[in-house]
Amino acid sequence: MSTPSARLPEGRYGRSSDQQADRTLKAVGAVLSVLMLALIGWFGYHHVVQNEISAEVIGFDTAEDSVKVHLEVHKDAGTVGYCTVRSQAEDGAEVGRADFRFDEDATRVDEVVTLRTTSRGTSAELVGCHTD
User: Is CATH 3.30.160 the right assignment for the domain spanning 53-131?
Assistant: First the structure.
Protein backbone atom coordinates (compact mmCIF):
# COMPACT_ATOMS: atom_id res chain seq x y z
CA MET A 1 0.00 0.00 0.00
CA SER A 2 1.03 3.50 -0.54
CA THR A 3 1.14 6.15 2.15
CA PRO A 4 -0.61 9.46 1.68
CA SER A 5 1.65 12.34 0.75
CA ALA A 6 2.45 14.91 3.48
CA ARG A 7 2.94 17.69 0.93
CA LEU A 8 0.22 20.26 0.37
CA PRO A 9 -1.00 20.66 -3.18
CA GLU A 10 0.87 23.45 -5.00
CA GLY A 11 -0.91 26.75 -5.47
CA ARG A 12 -3.84 25.65 -3.38
CA TYR A 13 -3.42 28.25 -0.62
CA GLY A 14 -2.00 31.13 -2.70
CA ARG A 15 0.82 32.09 -0.39
CA SER A 16 3.10 33.56 -3.05
CA SER A 17 0.45 35.90 -4.46
CA ASP A 18 -0.59 36.98 -0.93
CA GLN A 19 3.00 37.91 -0.12
CA GLN A 20 3.26 39.94 -3.31
CA ALA A 21 -0.02 41.72 -2.53
CA ASP A 22 1.24 42.50 0.99
CA ARG A 23 4.43 44.04 -0.43
CA THR A 24 2.39 46.10 -2.90
CA LEU A 25 0.07 47.37 -0.18
CA LYS A 26 3.03 48.28 2.04
CA ALA A 27 4.65 50.22 -0.81
CA VAL A 28 1.43 52.08 -1.62
CA GLY A 29 0.91 52.85 2.07
CA ALA A 30 4.46 54.20 2.40
CA VAL A 31 4.07 56.44 -0.66
CA LEU A 32 0.70 57.78 0.55
CA SER A 33 2.14 58.43 4.02
CA VAL A 34 5.03 60.44 2.57
CA LEU A 35 2.64 62.45 0.40
CA MET A 36 0.36 63.16 3.37
CA LEU A 37 3.29 64.32 5.51
CA ALA A 38 4.51 66.57 2.69
CA LEU A 39 1.04 68.10 2.34
CA ILE A 40 0.73 68.71 6.09
CA GLY A 41 4.22 70.24 6.12
CA TRP A 42 3.38 72.55 3.23
CA PHE A 43 0.18 73.79 4.89
CA GLY A 44 2.00 74.24 8.20
CA TYR A 45 4.79 76.23 6.55
CA HIS A 46 2.32 78.38 4.67
CA HIS A 47 0.30 79.11 7.81
CA VAL A 48 3.21 79.86 10.13
CA VAL A 49 5.89 81.39 7.92
CA GLN A 50 3.87 83.07 5.21
CA ASN A 51 1.45 84.75 7.64
CA GLU A 52 3.00 88.22 7.86
CA ILE A 53 0.73 89.58 10.58
CA SER A 54 -0.76 87.98 13.67
CA ALA A 55 -2.20 89.22 16.93
CA GLU A 56 -3.32 88.17 20.37
CA VAL A 57 -5.94 89.60 22.71
CA ILE A 58 -4.18 90.41 25.98
CA GLY A 59 -7.29 91.66 27.76
CA PHE A 60 -10.43 93.75 27.42
CA ASP A 61 -12.71 96.08 29.40
CA THR A 62 -16.40 96.42 28.65
CA ALA A 63 -18.62 99.47 28.89
CA GLU A 64 -22.27 100.06 27.98
CA ASP A 65 -21.54 100.98 24.33
CA SER A 66 -17.95 99.87 23.72
CA VAL A 67 -15.22 97.37 24.48
CA LYS A 68 -11.60 98.42 24.92
CA VAL A 69 -9.40 95.62 23.58
CA HIS A 70 -5.70 95.31 24.36
CA LEU A 71 -4.04 93.78 21.26
CA GLU A 72 -0.47 92.63 20.82
CA VAL A 73 0.29 92.52 17.08
CA HIS A 74 3.32 90.80 15.54
CA LYS A 75 4.20 91.53 11.93
CA ASP A 76 7.07 91.88 9.51
CA ALA A 77 8.73 95.30 9.42
CA GLY A 78 7.01 97.54 6.89
CA THR A 79 4.00 95.23 6.58
CA VAL A 80 0.64 96.98 6.47
CA GLY A 81 -2.46 95.09 7.52
CA TYR A 82 -5.52 94.95 9.69
CA CYS A 83 -7.02 92.78 12.40
CA THR A 84 -10.73 92.11 12.83
CA VAL A 85 -12.16 92.11 16.36
CA ARG A 86 -15.71 91.30 17.43
CA SER A 87 -17.73 91.35 20.62
CA GLN A 88 -20.76 89.35 21.68
CA ALA A 89 -23.50 89.98 24.21
CA GLU A 90 -24.24 87.55 27.02
CA ASP A 91 -26.80 85.72 24.86
CA GLY A 92 -24.21 85.17 22.08
CA ALA A 93 -25.47 87.81 19.68
CA GLU A 94 -22.77 89.84 17.95
CA VAL A 95 -22.94 93.44 19.17
CA GLY A 96 -19.84 94.84 17.49
CA ARG A 97 -17.25 94.08 14.80
CA ALA A 98 -14.52 96.29 13.37
CA ASP A 99 -11.21 96.21 11.50
CA PHE A 100 -8.21 97.97 13.04
CA ARG A 101 -5.29 98.94 10.80
CA PHE A 102 -1.66 98.50 11.80
CA ASP A 103 0.74 100.29 9.46
CA GLU A 104 3.60 101.10 11.83
CA ASP A 105 7.11 99.99 10.85
CA ALA A 106 7.58 98.18 14.17
CA THR A 107 7.50 94.38 14.25
CA ARG A 108 5.58 94.36 17.55
CA VAL A 109 2.69 96.74 18.21
CA ASP A 110 1.04 96.84 21.64
CA GLU A 111 -2.16 98.86 21.36
CA VAL A 112 -5.54 99.33 23.06
CA VAL A 113 -8.33 99.79 20.50
CA THR A 114 -11.94 100.75 21.13
CA LEU A 115 -14.68 98.65 19.55
CA ARG A 116 -18.07 100.39 19.45
CA THR A 117 -20.99 98.10 20.32
CA THR A 118 -24.77 98.32 19.93
CA SER A 119 -25.28 97.08 23.50
CA ARG A 120 -23.10 95.83 26.34
CA GLY A 121 -20.56 93.34 25.07
CA THR A 122 -19.31 90.57 27.34
CA SER A 123 -16.41 89.35 25.21
CA ALA A 124 -13.68 90.42 22.82
CA GLU A 125 -12.59 87.97 20.15
CA LEU A 126 -9.87 88.29 17.54
CA VAL A 127 -11.41 87.02 14.30
CA GLY A 128 -8.17 87.23 12.29
CA CYS A 129 -5.47 89.40 10.76
CA HIS A 130 -4.68 90.03 7.09
CA THR A 131 -2.15 91.98 5.06
CA ASP A 132 -3.18 94.49 2.43
Answer: no
* Domain locations in the chain as residue ranges: 11-50, 53-131
Q: What does pTM read for this prediction?
A: 0.62
Beta bridge partners of 105: none
DSSP code at position 2: P
Q: Any idea what DSSP says for residue 91?
A: T
For each of the chain's 132 residues, which pLDDT tens digit applies? 556 556 766 666 555 667 788 888 999 999 999 999 999 988 877 766 666 888 999 999 999 999 999 999 998 888 889 999 999 999 999 999 999 999 888 889 999 999 999 999 999 999 999 888
CA 35 – CA 115 distance, rounded (Å): 44
d(CA 96, CA 82) in angstroms, rounded, equals 16
3-state secondary structure 26-50: HHHHHHHHHHHHHHHHHHHHHHHCC
CB atoms within 10 A of CB 30: 10
